[in-house]
Amino acid sequence: MESRTSTSYSLGLLKEPSRTTLFRQEPCGVTYRIPALIYINDGETFLAFAEKRRTWRDCEAEILVMRRGVHQNGSIQWSPAQELKTAFLPRHRTMNPCPIYERKSKTLYLFFICVLGTTTEQYQIYTGRNKTRLCYVTSKDNGQSWSKTTDLTKSVFGKEFGNFATFAVGPGHGIQMKSGRLIIPAYAYYIHVRCFPFHFPLIVRPHALAFYSDDCGSTWQMGEQVDTSSCECEMAEVIDQDSRSHLYCNARSTQGHRVEALSESSGAAFDKSHFAQKLVEPCRGCQGSVLSFVPSLRAQGEGKNCVTSNANTWLLYSHPTNKRSRKALGVYMNKSPLSASSWCQPWIIHHGPSGYSDLTQFGETESFACLMECGESSELEEIAFVEFSLSDILKSVMT
Asked: Could you say which of 52, 230, 256, 344 is the most buried, measured as most Cβ atoms within 10 Å of its Cβ?
């Protein structure tokens, strides 16, 4: 297991957590990007996913890779990197891993997109020619073996496919709500106006949305889009003090702050979208991760620097905290997720260059992990894994 002790950087008295490098940029230029992380309680197993690319560029992506982590003798033992060779379509590149675990059937779904050749996202947006497919593979043995690829594009989009210049899932994890509904976060570039008679796109805007399933993943539907321009997103279920469920969406934006929205229909539609003033974005934005959890009674009595809670679940959120560039990855906490801008100050878990990240909770304790792009000179250098506890977050809040 390759690990590195944290430096002396700290927020107040709280140091960065130690990190374990899972994927490292190779001297030949091969780069690993777009982390996704999931913990499967049934097998007590972490699965860490990433894209393997010939270079750092999006159009040079090739295949998804994975490492499995299992607790042994007080530490996590990680398997060697494995290429997911069944997660592909011929002549397409595989991108944006988005895992989700279905509790009833004990099935792990790994969603991703397949993009034709080296077609770029910008080409699809400018021309309105969608070259992307919505796909998944499944595993019944905690990621040791995988099914062949299922292409959902036609069944989910139907005739609407031509109205989307392009789309993607996540990246990052999906969730299963208490009702059993499976939620895959996604975004699409919707063609609002075309130039007739040539059908050339004139107005194309990105919008976050959800794909969802109510039959353990047998069939999938597409929800309505968040009305505010929004891009890469993750979602979390918030349970209020009356035990009612709300689906929370946290999405990338180019307007300097994150977009937040709530759904009272479990992802079928979103409303109440707004810009989160306490969650800054660098100039072009960056992906971030969000996670909901139920705090213990002990934890509820701590963190007094944050507002009073209005829900039975709290939120964690990870994202670069610098508004000018991708660096200083922080973890934020929100005790009152149904109120706008109620985030606490972040705990910086990596002060250097930082990019995409994904959060997960593991075990039956208030323990969490983050898989993040990071480095000393560039966030492209490695994808690293860190563990931390809720008490670490609470200490940073009270510092």
From this structure: 230
Q: What is the pLDDT at residue 154?
A: 96
Q: Residue 240, Cα to own-chain centre: how many angstroms? A: 23
Region of residue 303 (phi > 0: left; psi between -120 and 50: alpha; otherwise: beta): left
Q: Which residues contact 24 (CB under 8 A, 6 or more apart)?
A: 32, 381, 382, 383
Distance (Å, whole) CA 319 – CA 235: 14
Amino acid at 393: I
Three-state secondary-structure class, residue 251: strand
Q: Residue 263 pLDDT more than 90?
A: yes
Give the pLDDT of residue 185: 98
Catalytic (active-site) positions: 58, 356, 373
Q: Is the pTM of this model over 0.85?
A: yes
Q: Looking at the predicted structure, is the pLDDT value of residue 26 above 50?
A: yes
**Residue 175 near residue 141, CB atoms below 8 Å:** no
Three-state secondary structure call for residue 172: coil
Domain 10-398 has CATH 2.120.10.10: yes
SS3 state of residue 345: coil
Please check whether residue 189 is in contact with residue 166, taking contact to mean a CB–CB distance below 8 angstroms. Answer: yes
Q: What percent of the chain has pLDDT over 90?
A: 81
Residues 6+ positions from 273 with CB-CB distance below 8 Å: 226, 227, 228, 230, 259, 260, 261
